[in-house]
Amino acid sequence: MDKIHLDGYQKFKKVYFKDNKKLFDELSEGQKPHTMIITCSDSRVSPTKILSAKPGELFIARNIGNIIPPYELTKGATQSAIEYAVNALKIPHLVVLGHSSCGACAHLYHETDEDEKSVELSHVEEWLTLAYPAKHNAILECLHNPEKNRAEITEKNNILLSIERLMTYPYIVKALEEKRIELHGWWYNVGTGDLEVYDYTTKTFKKIEV
User: How far apart are the C-alpha atoms of 38 and 81, rounded to whole Å?
Assistant: First the structure.
């Protein structure tokens, strides 16, 4: 294993774990996260860092492009995580977190670097077909507003597509009807650190002011 990883672990064990021993004692008995975050596998996106969250606060599922498959498709890891979070953990908040410079969204337009073009990515190609509707919506939006950033519009439409699909999952529909869960769409700018939250009233993403 790369030494940097072991150094990081040693720092965690000697400092953070030691300073938060009571928290880890409690977590050893079980978890009760307040939020589930479905985000991209991209190494630049760290929900715990972005939200300054402690262990036990966030239940996180990651995949290429923070994509939510339609409910009727064969169940996989993402759907299993969602089902567990909603039905077993009873999380009150579920967030789809997308981000800028998303390679998955760029791949929809075949805008990838030369290294990606030279390797076999058949599983990625198949997975990304689930995001085609987001690409279609982004193209239409940019036709009417040519000044908009197509990459950003695609990333945000991909978030909205995922939320739209979540609203068809029977147990989420039930939880929404019982007002015990809220669905959120967030877009994180990797370069600026800005976080934008989707406003259902205005149907726009609004930057969180700090």
Answer: 9
